[in-house]
């Protein structure tokens, strides 16, 4: 992040980045690790939004818990909100391309499903994607 970008962050956000909460870690997860819960959960490192950010793919229900890797804004699934490393955040989305996704849960904006109306054309300023590899492809490569 450039000095100008850092300076543009609100003072409270700068404070949080400098003074992140600390907790004891008992177990760490690996990128691609398979958890045996809920019919199988795949751990996906989606760095960029924060260091260590993960998304979870629930295989049985074809649900992606994207966390902050993507957002739903005005009922439309979009790329992540601006963050410390936007380039890495966007590149992390490539890991979703091979997943059979029917539902995406985002921490900002809620849930996106195939029946959600997504009728806008992707543009460089506001790329839109649906829960399918085709629209994730558009998000990544039509910037």
Tell me briefly what this model is:
The chain has 143 residues and is of the alpha+beta class. It has 4 helices and 8 strands; from the N terminus they run H-H-E-E-E-E-E-E-H-E-E-H.
Structural overview:
It comes from Neobacillus pocheonensis. 21% of the residues lie in helices and 21% in strands. The protein has 143 residues and is α+β, with helices and mostly antiparallel strands. A hairpin with an 8-residue loop joins β2 (41-45) and β3 (54-58). Residues 117-135 have low confidence and may be disordered. The protein has a six-stranded mixed sheet, with no helix packed on it. A two-stranded antiparallel ribbon has the order 5-6. It has helices at residues 3-8, 11-18, 86-92, 133-141; strands spanning 34-35, 41-45, 54-58, 63-67, 71-73, 76-78, 103-106, 110-112. The longest helix has 9 residues, at 133-141. It has a single domain (33-141), classed as Metallo-beta-lactamase, Chain A, CATH 3.60.15.
Q: What is the average of the pLDDT values?
A: 75
End-to-end C-alpha gap: 20 Å
Helical residue percent band: 10-25%
What proportion of the residues form beta strands (DSSP E)?
A: 15-25%
Largest β-sheet summary:
6 strands, mixed
Domain Metallo-beta-lactamase: 16-108
Protein name: Metallo-beta-lactamase domain-containing protein
InterPro entries: Metallo-B-lactamas, NDM-1-like, RibonucZ/Hydroxyglut_hydro
Pfam families: Lactamase_B
